[in-house]
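Researcher: Re-running this chain for the archive, since the previous output was lost when a drive failed. Same request as before.
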Amino acid sequence: MKAKKILLIGIFFILLYGCVKQRQERIQDSMEQAKKLAIDGNYREALKFLEEHIKEKDRDTCYYLYHGLYQELDDVLYYLPRYHEDYLKAYELDPENYDVLLRLGLSYELLNDYEKAVSYLEEAVRLYPQSNRTDSNPYGSLAIAYLETGHYEKAYNTNEYAISLSPDNAWNYLRKGLILSHLKGLNPLVEYYKKACYMDPDNIEFPKYYGNRLIEMGLYDLAIEHFNKFLAIDEEYYWAYADLGYIKMAQGDLEGGKSLLDKATAIFSNDPLILKYLGFYYHFSGLEQESYDYYSKYRLSMEKSVVILKIHSEKEFIDYFSPAAQHSPVLSVPSKKIIEGE
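Model: Regenerated structure tokens:
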């Protein structure tokens, strides 16, 4: 009887192992099928495939990481709250996972919570040497978080390490100029902006960040010259009209600023920066309802899946639309390499 019981227990565990193995193989196969869809750029199909083929009880760190990543790659702003939640779930299951820490840190940067971004990205840096990743590194992202929290020396040192790992990445040099502008003023900003443009002359984002930093530094004449230079090249550069409009308003010419914002809107009506500046215009014109409307439009353009809550006070509105709030982080583009398992 005892021998029979032992035999039955043995058979039970063999069957259980076989079922577990089959389930694991099925889950792994589903993950691979979803990856193939994502590699071809079919992120929504990959997302749907995961949700349909992996039951909730079988969803592990890997599931939540890729479920979040496919949403991030599909639309980095629209799905931000959703994929951020996925990364939090993945972190709860595996707090020592480099990829999870990196993506969670990056999502906190997009949410403008740079203190939390620092904590997760520092952990990603700690684990980076064991990650065997060669396609990207977390140092540039951590440098951004340090920059946005006012730790300029840390930002500089971290960015220098990013440069040592990726000396051909033009973003690293633009970021270096932005950081040094806080430590040494205008000259290094100009120097490294030019270097970044030389390395990647077709990147239209560089002049936007450079111009916005000139505005933040109060160097309006240089900023005006900079934006007018790009309008001379192409009158369709709506972002140049928008920033010139902001400068006009900051100098006290609200209507002159509004005229330039109207030019920007005629070219592209749903740009977050334009909507933000229009909120600024209507607030200081005393038209509160219109200012709140544009504030809501601005929020919707950035986070379309977030419930819009009106701000509660004039001070909160002024603080939100103040020049100090106009951060220009040079964020890393989510890498497709993680999908391919490289």
